[in-house]
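FORM 7B: Structural annotation worksheet

SECTION A. Query
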Amino acid sequence: MSTSMTDRRPPTAAEKPAAPRRAIRRSPLAYTRHTVRERLAAGGFMAPAILLVTVFLLAPFVWTIYRSFFSDTRTSPFSWFDNYSLFASDPALSLSIQNTLMWVAGTVVLPFVLGLAIACMTNASRFSRLARLCVVLPYALSGSAVAVVWNFMLTTDGAVNQVLTSLGLDSLVQGWLLTWPGNTIVMILANAWQATGVAVILFLVGLQSIPPETLEAGSLDGASGWQQFRHIVLPQLRPVSIIVIGMSLVNGLKSFDLIWVLTQGGPGRATETLAVSMYNETFLELRPGAGAAIAVVLTVIVLAASWLYLRRQLDVKGV
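SECTION B. Predicted structure
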């Protein structure tokens, strides 16, 4: 009886459970002040980057747009869209647009296909490290250095023609940089020789991140090598493919150094791209208004192409 009474006695003060702590409520004014301080701190950290982008990127671009509406004569400085009408009236600019499209197609397709093929072949081979070094090494060179190497090979008395002559293939000897569109095509090949290196690196990273269990499961299900590559490897390389194609797209649109060192846009203006035409109009022809118009058009094309491509590829469901 005593035991049951002892069990039923009320708990003492020391044994009572602690009362739940009440949440501290901030006043609306204090919450507002705290939010303002956080935003000011974030703005302070972002201010240097925003200032640099504004000074070195946005301000020059706005000035370029402004300058493109002015001619280079003192009689009628404000010319409205006369500089932009050159794209329809100047044959050199029309050919420049064709060359730019050729460069975009070549610099997107060749590095992607060659980079993916070389990465797959050297991913698990015995001499993979040596092969990767040979492919990646040109990417470490500057565009001007690559142009000097290929100029040594492609001139009329260059290495390519000498090799063809020594092999008895005199009918194939030609001036590789003298006729269009052959000169543009060989320069695209030279650019692909350099740009394939970074594509190989990126694709190798993507291949090594694929779980081997997925390939083993496909092999157990009876999938052939091509079926595994098409249905297992390629879908998992999609994020890397987006990066490779995006970089190649932008680089193809703004190609300059390789073209300028090899041909300077010649013969005549046959191998000019929009980037080379912009430089030629601004600094050689001393027509900064026309050069500014070309720069604006080129910038719009680069931004539009990049935005359309990334908008289509970087889908949440797709990636």
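SECTION C. Observations
The radius of gyration is 31 Å. The chain has a mean pLDDT of 83.

SECTION D. Sign-off
Analyst initials: ____
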